[in-house]
Design goal:
Phage tail protein beta-alpha-beta fold, 278 residues, single chain, 6 helices, 2 domains, 19 strands, four-stranded mixed sheet, 32% strand
Length: 278
Protein backbone atom coordinates (compact mmCIF):
# COMPACT_ATOMS: atom_id res chain seq x y z
CA UNK A 1 0.00 0.00 0.00
CA UNK A 2 1.34 3.41 -0.99
CA UNK A 3 0.36 6.57 0.87
CA UNK A 4 0.90 10.17 -0.27
CA UNK A 5 0.00 12.83 2.27
CA UNK A 6 0.96 16.41 3.07
CA UNK A 7 1.22 18.26 6.34
CA UNK A 8 -2.16 18.73 8.06
CA UNK A 9 -4.05 21.75 6.78
CA UNK A 10 -7.19 22.87 5.08
CA UNK A 11 -7.88 21.73 1.53
CA UNK A 12 -7.11 24.31 -1.09
CA UNK A 13 -6.96 24.88 -4.79
CA UNK A 14 -3.52 25.14 -6.31
CA UNK A 15 -1.80 25.67 -9.63
CA UNK A 16 -0.49 22.21 -10.49
CA UNK A 17 2.53 21.70 -12.73
CA UNK A 18 3.24 18.00 -12.28
CA UNK A 19 5.38 16.24 -14.94
CA UNK A 20 4.47 12.81 -16.35
CA UNK A 21 5.50 9.83 -14.27
CA UNK A 22 4.09 6.96 -12.25
CA UNK A 23 0.74 7.14 -10.45
CA UNK A 24 2.52 7.31 -7.08
CA UNK A 25 4.74 10.22 -8.21
CA UNK A 26 1.79 12.24 -9.54
CA UNK A 27 -0.22 11.46 -6.37
CA UNK A 28 2.63 12.80 -4.21
CA UNK A 29 2.65 16.00 -6.26
CA UNK A 30 -1.12 16.46 -5.79
CA UNK A 31 -0.87 15.80 -2.04
CA UNK A 32 1.89 18.35 -1.55
CA UNK A 33 0.12 21.06 -3.55
CA UNK A 34 -3.40 20.63 -2.10
CA UNK A 35 -2.80 19.30 1.46
CA UNK A 36 -4.61 16.11 0.47
CA UNK A 37 -4.07 12.54 1.63
CA UNK A 38 -4.03 9.90 -1.13
CA UNK A 39 -3.67 6.16 -0.55
CA UNK A 40 -2.95 3.69 -3.38
CA UNK A 41 -4.26 0.26 -2.41
CA UNK A 42 -1.95 -1.83 -4.60
CA UNK A 43 1.75 -0.95 -5.14
CA UNK A 44 1.51 -2.44 -8.64
CA UNK A 45 -1.13 0.17 -9.52
CA UNK A 46 1.20 2.90 -8.28
CA UNK A 47 3.79 1.93 -10.92
CA UNK A 48 1.46 2.66 -13.84
CA UNK A 49 2.66 5.50 -16.08
CA UNK A 50 0.36 8.50 -16.55
CA UNK A 51 0.51 11.97 -18.07
CA UNK A 52 1.20 14.98 -15.88
CA UNK A 53 -1.30 17.53 -14.57
CA UNK A 54 -1.32 21.24 -15.33
CA UNK A 55 -3.75 23.97 -14.33
CA UNK A 56 -5.52 25.40 -11.30
CA UNK A 57 -7.72 22.85 -9.56
CA UNK A 58 -8.65 21.41 -6.21
CA UNK A 59 -7.67 18.05 -4.78
CA UNK A 60 -10.97 16.37 -5.74
CA UNK A 61 -10.68 17.34 -9.40
CA UNK A 62 -6.98 16.43 -9.56
CA UNK A 63 -7.56 13.00 -7.98
CA UNK A 64 -10.44 12.27 -10.38
CA UNK A 65 -8.27 13.17 -13.37
CA UNK A 66 -5.48 10.95 -12.06
CA UNK A 67 -7.91 8.06 -11.57
CA UNK A 68 -9.29 8.39 -15.11
CA UNK A 69 -5.81 8.60 -16.66
CA UNK A 70 -4.63 5.47 -14.84
CA UNK A 71 -7.77 3.36 -15.27
CA UNK A 72 -8.48 3.38 -11.54
CA UNK A 73 -11.33 4.47 -9.30
CA UNK A 74 -11.10 7.22 -6.65
CA UNK A 75 -12.98 6.61 -3.39
CA UNK A 76 -13.26 9.54 -0.97
CA UNK A 77 -12.70 8.32 2.58
CA UNK A 78 -12.54 11.66 4.39
CA UNK A 79 -12.93 15.44 4.02
CA UNK A 80 -9.68 15.70 2.09
CA UNK A 81 -8.63 12.06 1.74
CA UNK A 82 -8.97 9.60 -1.16
CA UNK A 83 -8.18 5.99 -1.84
CA UNK A 84 -7.20 4.86 -5.37
CA UNK A 85 -8.29 1.31 -6.16
CA UNK A 86 -8.51 -0.83 -9.28
CA UNK A 87 -11.51 0.11 -11.40
CA UNK A 88 -14.26 -2.53 -11.45
CA UNK A 89 -14.32 -4.63 -14.57
CA UNK A 90 -17.19 -3.91 -16.95
CA UNK A 91 -19.88 -6.55 -17.23
CA UNK A 92 -19.27 -9.00 -20.03
CA UNK A 93 -21.63 -8.79 -22.94
CA UNK A 94 -22.73 -11.85 -24.83
CA UNK A 95 -20.69 -11.88 -28.02
CA UNK A 96 -22.30 -13.00 -31.22
CA UNK A 97 -20.75 -16.21 -32.53
CA UNK A 98 -18.26 -15.67 -35.32
CA UNK A 99 -18.97 -17.40 -38.62
CA UNK A 100 -16.88 -20.46 -39.30
CA UNK A 101 -13.77 -19.78 -41.33
CA UNK A 102 -13.38 -21.82 -44.49
CA UNK A 103 -9.78 -22.94 -44.99
CA UNK A 104 -8.69 -24.49 -48.30
CA UNK A 105 -7.46 -28.06 -48.08
CA UNK A 106 -4.01 -27.11 -49.45
CA UNK A 107 -3.54 -24.13 -47.08
CA UNK A 108 -0.33 -24.14 -45.03
CA UNK A 109 0.07 -21.43 -42.37
CA UNK A 110 3.33 -19.50 -42.39
CA UNK A 111 5.67 -20.24 -39.51
CA UNK A 112 5.85 -17.40 -37.01
CA UNK A 113 9.13 -16.51 -35.39
CA UNK A 114 9.13 -16.61 -31.56
CA UNK A 115 10.69 -13.14 -31.68
CA UNK A 116 7.70 -11.81 -33.65
CA UNK A 117 6.37 -8.49 -32.44
CA UNK A 118 3.62 -8.96 -29.90
CA UNK A 119 4.73 -12.45 -28.80
CA UNK A 120 4.34 -12.90 -25.01
CA UNK A 121 7.49 -12.64 -22.89
CA UNK A 122 7.84 -15.58 -20.48
CA UNK A 123 10.05 -15.17 -17.40
CA UNK A 124 11.45 -18.59 -16.44
CA UNK A 125 13.53 -17.31 -13.51
CA UNK A 126 10.32 -17.26 -11.44
CA UNK A 127 10.23 -21.11 -11.79
CA UNK A 128 6.58 -20.95 -12.89
CA UNK A 129 7.01 -19.65 -16.48
CA UNK A 130 4.94 -16.53 -15.77
CA UNK A 131 4.41 -13.82 -18.34
CA UNK A 132 6.30 -10.56 -17.83
CA UNK A 133 3.22 -8.75 -16.46
CA UNK A 134 2.45 -11.53 -13.94
CA UNK A 135 5.83 -11.63 -12.18
CA UNK A 136 5.45 -10.21 -8.63
CA UNK A 137 8.67 -8.23 -8.66
CA UNK A 138 11.07 -6.15 -10.69
CA UNK A 139 12.45 -8.07 -13.68
CA UNK A 140 14.99 -7.01 -16.31
CA UNK A 141 15.31 -8.99 -19.55
CA UNK A 142 18.33 -8.66 -21.84
CA UNK A 143 18.19 -10.05 -25.38
CA UNK A 144 21.02 -12.45 -26.16
CA UNK A 145 21.75 -10.73 -29.47
CA UNK A 146 22.31 -7.46 -27.59
CA UNK A 147 24.71 -9.16 -25.15
CA UNK A 148 26.73 -10.59 -28.06
CA UNK A 149 26.89 -7.30 -29.96
CA UNK A 150 30.43 -6.00 -30.40
CA UNK A 151 32.17 -9.34 -29.97
CA UNK A 152 32.28 -11.91 -27.20
CA UNK A 153 31.94 -10.27 -23.78
CA UNK A 154 31.47 -11.25 -20.19
CA UNK A 155 29.49 -10.08 -17.19
CA UNK A 156 30.36 -6.44 -17.95
CA UNK A 157 27.77 -6.62 -20.76
CA UNK A 158 25.11 -7.19 -18.09
CA UNK A 159 26.32 -4.51 -15.67
CA UNK A 160 26.48 -1.96 -18.51
CA UNK A 161 22.84 -2.54 -19.49
CA UNK A 162 21.13 -3.16 -16.13
CA UNK A 163 20.97 -0.16 -13.81
CA UNK A 164 20.30 -2.31 -10.72
CA UNK A 165 23.43 -4.49 -11.14
CA UNK A 166 26.84 -3.25 -10.00
CA UNK A 167 30.28 -4.79 -9.68
CA UNK A 168 33.44 -4.30 -7.60
CA UNK A 169 35.51 -4.02 -10.83
CA UNK A 170 38.50 -5.83 -9.36
CA UNK A 171 39.12 -7.74 -12.59
CA UNK A 172 37.79 -10.75 -14.47
CA UNK A 173 37.35 -13.72 -12.15
CA UNK A 174 37.65 -11.54 -9.02
CA UNK A 175 34.56 -9.34 -9.21
CA UNK A 176 31.67 -9.50 -6.79
CA UNK A 177 28.20 -8.55 -8.07
CA UNK A 178 25.45 -6.67 -6.24
CA UNK A 179 21.81 -5.99 -7.09
CA UNK A 180 20.09 -2.85 -5.76
CA UNK A 181 23.23 -2.06 -3.74
CA UNK A 182 22.65 -4.94 -1.27
CA UNK A 183 26.14 -6.03 -0.24
CA UNK A 184 28.04 -7.44 2.71
CA UNK A 185 31.58 -6.65 1.58
CA UNK A 186 33.58 -6.05 -1.58
CA UNK A 187 35.70 -9.11 -0.77
CA UNK A 188 34.75 -12.75 -1.22
CA UNK A 189 34.78 -15.02 1.81
CA UNK A 190 33.23 -18.12 3.39
CA UNK A 191 29.70 -16.66 3.54
CA UNK A 192 27.22 -16.98 0.70
CA UNK A 193 26.97 -14.24 -1.89
CA UNK A 194 24.03 -11.84 -1.93
CA UNK A 195 23.43 -12.50 -5.65
CA UNK A 196 22.70 -15.96 -7.03
CA UNK A 197 24.08 -16.64 -10.51
CA UNK A 198 22.64 -19.36 -12.72
CA UNK A 199 23.48 -20.82 -16.13
CA UNK A 200 20.14 -22.21 -17.18
CA UNK A 201 19.01 -24.13 -14.09
CA UNK A 202 22.56 -24.76 -12.82
CA UNK A 203 23.91 -22.57 -10.02
CA UNK A 204 27.36 -21.23 -10.87
CA UNK A 205 28.74 -20.35 -7.44
CA UNK A 206 27.98 -20.09 -3.73
CA UNK A 207 30.66 -17.88 -2.14
CA UNK A 208 33.08 -17.58 -5.06
CA UNK A 209 33.62 -14.47 -7.23
CA UNK A 210 31.75 -13.92 -10.47
CA UNK A 211 33.02 -16.56 -12.95
CA UNK A 212 32.72 -13.99 -15.80
CA UNK A 213 31.47 -16.49 -18.39
CA UNK A 214 31.76 -15.50 -22.04
CA UNK A 215 28.26 -14.62 -23.26
CA UNK A 216 28.25 -16.59 -26.51
CA UNK A 217 25.22 -18.35 -28.00
CA UNK A 218 22.92 -16.82 -25.38
CA UNK A 219 19.15 -16.59 -25.77
CA UNK A 220 18.68 -13.96 -23.05
CA UNK A 221 19.69 -12.78 -19.62
CA UNK A 222 17.20 -12.48 -16.74
CA UNK A 223 17.68 -10.30 -13.65
CA UNK A 224 15.15 -10.91 -10.87
CA UNK A 225 15.46 -8.49 -7.95
CA UNK A 226 15.41 -10.01 -4.48
CA UNK A 227 14.91 -11.16 -1.91
CA UNK A 228 14.33 -14.52 -3.64
CA UNK A 229 15.03 -16.92 -0.79
CA UNK A 230 11.61 -18.58 -1.14
CA UNK A 231 12.44 -19.78 -4.68
CA UNK A 232 16.24 -20.04 -4.64
CA UNK A 233 17.26 -20.44 -0.99
CA UNK A 234 20.36 -18.89 0.57
CA UNK A 235 22.53 -16.58 -1.45
CA UNK A 236 19.72 -14.68 -3.20
CA UNK A 237 19.04 -11.77 -0.85
CA UNK A 238 19.89 -9.19 -3.51
CA UNK A 239 18.39 -11.13 -6.39
CA UNK A 240 19.12 -13.56 -9.21
CA UNK A 241 21.12 -13.25 -12.45
CA UNK A 242 20.23 -16.05 -14.86
CA UNK A 243 21.97 -16.65 -18.18
CA UNK A 244 19.74 -18.64 -20.52
CA UNK A 245 21.68 -20.42 -23.31
CA UNK A 246 20.14 -20.85 -26.74
CA UNK A 247 18.52 -24.30 -26.87
CA UNK A 248 19.35 -26.70 -29.74
CA UNK A 249 16.74 -27.04 -32.48
CA UNK A 250 16.28 -30.63 -33.70
CA UNK A 251 15.85 -30.99 -37.44
CA UNK A 252 17.62 -27.72 -38.25
CA UNK A 253 21.24 -27.11 -39.20
CA UNK A 254 22.85 -23.72 -38.72
CA UNK A 255 26.28 -22.19 -38.20
CA UNK A 256 27.00 -18.81 -36.59
CA UNK A 257 30.51 -17.36 -36.75
CA UNK A 258 31.63 -13.98 -35.43
CA UNK A 259 34.88 -12.29 -34.57
CA UNK A 260 36.40 -9.04 -33.41
CA UNK A 261 39.71 -7.21 -33.35
CA UNK A 262 41.16 -4.45 -31.20
CA UNK A 263 44.25 -2.28 -30.95
CA UNK A 264 45.58 -0.13 -28.12
CA UNK A 265 48.24 2.56 -27.96
CA UNK A 266 51.67 1.21 -26.99
CA UNK A 267 50.29 -2.31 -26.95
CA UNK A 268 49.76 -5.41 -29.02
CA UNK A 269 46.66 -5.94 -31.17
CA UNK A 270 44.05 -8.37 -29.91
CA UNK A 271 41.12 -10.29 -31.24
CA UNK A 272 38.51 -12.89 -30.52
CA UNK A 273 36.34 -15.28 -32.48
CA UNK A 274 33.62 -17.77 -31.73
CA UNK A 275 31.47 -20.17 -33.69
CA UNK A 276 28.30 -22.06 -32.83
CA UNK A 277 26.84 -24.94 -34.82
CA UNK A 278 23.41 -26.45 -34.36
Amino acid sequence: MLRASAAPGAAREAVLVIPPGSVSEVAIGIARATNASIVIADPALGRRKVAGLKGRMGAAEAVRKLARASGMAAVQVGPNAWRLVAAPRPARSLARPKPARVVPANYTPAAQSPEAEGAPITVTASKRDLTFAEVPGQVTLLDGRVLERGGVGGTERITQRAATVSSTYLGSGRNKLFIRGIADSSFTGPTQATVGQYFGDLRLSYNAPDPDLRLSDMERGEILEGPQGTLYGAGSLGGIIRRVPRAPEPGETSLVVSGGASTITNGEPGGDAHATMN
